[in-house]
From TrEMBL:
A Pfam family hit: ABC_tran
Organism classification: Bacteria, Bacillati, Actinomycetota, Actinomycetes, Micromonosporales
Location of the ABC transporter domain: 2-230
Family, per entry: Belongs to the ABC transporter superfamily.
Gene Ontology biological process terms in this record: L-amino acid transport
Keyword field: Amino-acid transport, ATP-binding, Nucleotide-binding, Transport
PANTHER family given in the database record: HIGH-AFFINITY BRANCHED-CHAIN AMINO ACID TRANSPORT ATP-BINDING PROTEIN LIVF (PTHR43820)
Organism this protein belongs to: Micromonospora taraxaci
Positions of transmembrane segments: none
UniProt protein name: Amino acid/amide ABC transporter ATP-binding protein 2 (HAAT family)
């Protein structure tokens, strides 16, 4: 559903991505793994249309979106789950859930959200920022699903969460995958990545240095941890 070919990106004169190719299929979970500064965030920003100093091509659902601005890519079905979670502090959980525009017929209803995220159902009248980190992460994911996005791009969904909450996020990702939504995760937590994804791209200095299916990734988990320093 998403395919980028020969993506290069710059910040002024400094090149941050070099001829990167990535692909995410329907119902596929793919991670971008690499050290700080490897280019993971830049790559996702290029895919969703937020970084414009770029060359190469991006296609989404068989449409060339290379020149499409970010808001149109969102309308076409790309859902961005940011690392700061982007929750509106002055709104309740339910108001946060009612806010996103619907972009497709697969948009989750409030009922579906509350069934899949009982944690949010219990907190529907609570202010957005009174939530725990895990609940905020769930709200950010649920909001993207409310739009009907068919591809979710997530920035380190496991970051800063207790192991029991990380396990819950893993469960949620699997549940979303089962609906056919494609998921691209920036993930520094190799162990989490290995338990949730089908495929992994290793980035180093703005280049994809390896593409691994999950069995190879798991087999090399120790080595990857050591060599990547992540
Ligand atoms: N706004 C910016 N201006 C100039 N250079 C930038 C900017 N943002 C990122 N860079 C540079 O681009 C390169 C890739 O950074 P990027 O943030 O994409 O990496 P990352 O893998 O996401 O790292 P992190 O995990 O720390 O977010 C780095 O060399 C970084 O210094």
């Amino acid at each position: 559903m998403l395919e980028a070919t020969g993506l290069s990106a710059w910040y002024g004169e400094a090149q941050a991505l070099h001829e990167v190719d990535v692909r995410v299929g329907e119902g596929e979970v793919v991670t971008l793994v690499g050290r700080n500064g490897a280019g993971k965030t830049t790559l996702v920003r290029c895919l969703i249309g937020l970084h414009r100093q770029v060359s190469g091509a991006v296609s989404f659902l068989d449409r060339d979106v290379t020149r499409m601005p970010a808001h149109q890519r969102a309308r076409a079905g790309m859902g961005w789950v940011q690392d700061d979670r982007g929750i509106y502090a002055s709104l309740t959980v339910e108001e946060n859930l009612l806010l996103p525009p619907t972009v497709s017929g697969r948009a989750w209803t409030l009922k579906q959200v509350y069934e899949a995220f009982p944690e949010l159902a219990g907190r529907r009248k609570a202010g957005g920022t009174t939530l725990s980190g895990g609940e905020q992460q769930m709200l950010a994911i649920a909001r993207a699903l409310r739009t009907g996005a068919c591809l979710l791009l997530m920035d380190e969904p496991s970051e800063g969460l207790a192991p029991v909450v990380v396990a819950r996020i893993r469960e949620i990702i699997r549940q979303i995958k089962a609906t056919g939504v494609g998921i691209l995760l920036i993930e520094q937590n190799v162990t989490f990545a290995a338990t949730v994804a089908d495929r992994h791209y290793l980035l180093s200095q703005g280049r994809i240095v390896e593409t691994l299916d999950n069995s190879d990734f798991r087999r090399r988990e120790g080595e990857l941890l050591k060599h990547l320093g992540i």
